[in-house]
Design goal:
Length: 344
């Protein structure tokens, strides 16, 4: 199953992107900075194949539905972003594709950012067919985030992220301002590759929101992703906002759980948790109100307490927003648990 999914996800990199006649073919960072000064709907910026070292790519623009601004690789998989590098973009209808980040780490707090400043966010935009491969700060407890999604109605799909070794979330949905709430993001068909045990908090693979904004709605959909041995900490996914959906994902031999840490009205359905009797493999942890957990398949999970196959937390009486709310009006039904050690 792992090999099949990996081929589907990463294999997309071999296909070429057509070069539109109206496009801008860019060979270095100087040309890039000049090209992005005047982008219009339909502008295609193509980065030449090769190693792009120590570049901070910044793109602002306003595309149109059906006629986006595109930033793409000449040949998907052959544009290598290395050294002290990152990417930030903002505006409307921007599409990024085909880039590979490896052999370096971000000089800021984010590798790919759906914003260029606090008030300049990306909306209706997409990152697809990109790779972040061991693009890790060598200082293990220096924190950064590989992908930070801001704004509204954005999509992150068919990407590959492998080997984050330092502290910080692999992918975070940010909700600090009103402009990033009720965002309706879609995160789908991505491959999240092996992540080693961090040994402390801050090693989640996905986090949606934070405790400060957990009573507000994100309405993010996370579906059809493959989580392969993502062992950063005991929360593989940390749900910290309301109204999110987790559907049709596969968690393969991963040491942790999909955790409804904060927030209400979460739907978790049709996911596969395949522990195969590996140590500390877990399933689903239910906290807070109006949660629905149904039709999930949990096999060979050995974790206990926070890492059990199915866990309902007791909660803290009169809990502050950053602790553990009681489970209220929630449903756990029609789940299949096989050869797993703990339902608690």
């Amino acid at each position: 199953m792992f090999r099949k999914f990996f081929f589907i996800s990463v294999g997309l990199l071999v296909f070429s992107c057509s070069q539109e006649k109206t496009g801008k073919f860019i060979k270095n960072i100087g040309e890039f900075n000049e090209a992005v000064k005047n982008v219009q709907p339909g502008t295609v910026i193509t980065l030449a194949d090769g190693n792009w070292e120590n570049v901070e790519l910044r793109l602002k623009g306003t595309g149109e539905e059906g006629n986006p601004i595109k930033l793409q690789a000449q040949t998907p998989g052959k544009v290598i972003i290395s050294g002290q590098s990152n990417l930030a973009f903002s505006g409307e209808y921007i599409e990024v594709s085909g880039l590979v980040f490896k052999n370096g780490y971000t000089p800021t707090s984010e590798v790919i950012s759906f914003k260029t400043s606090k008030d300049e966010l990306a909306n209706n935009s997409r990152v697809t067919n990109c790779v972040i491969d061991n693009f890790t700060n060598p200082e293990r407890f220096d924190s950064d985030t590989w992908v930070a999604i801001y704004g509204k109605n954005n999509q992150f799909d068919h990407n590959t992220m492998i080997g984050k070794g330092n502290q910080g979330v692999t992918l975070a949905v940010r909700m600090q301002t009103e402009a990033s709430r009720e965002n309706n993001h879609i995160i789908e068909h991505n491959y999240f590759g092996p992540r080693q045990v961090l040994g402390s908090n801050g090693g989640e693979t996905i986090r949606v929101g934070t405790s400060h904004y957990s009573r507000t709605y994100s309405n993010t959909i996370i579906r059809s992703n493959f989580f392969d041995r993502v062992n950063g900490e005991h929360e593989i996914i940390s749900n910290k906002s309301c109204g999110n959906v987790f559907r049709d994902n596969v968690f393969f031999e991963s040491q942790g759980t999909l955790t409804m840490r904060h927030g209400h009205h979460t739907l978790v359905e049709n996911n596969y948790f395949l522990g195969n009797r590996k140590p500390n493999t877990g399933g689903i942890r239910i906290i807070n109100e109006n949660q629905t957990v149904r039709k999930n398949y949990l096999y060979g999970l050995t974790g206990h307490r926070f890492r059990g196959a199915l866990v309902i937390m007791n909660g803290v009486p009169d809990s502050p927003i950053n602790r553990y709310n009681q489970v209220v009006d929630s449903y756990m039904e029609s789940n299949i648990v096989i050869n797993s050690d703990f339902i608690q």
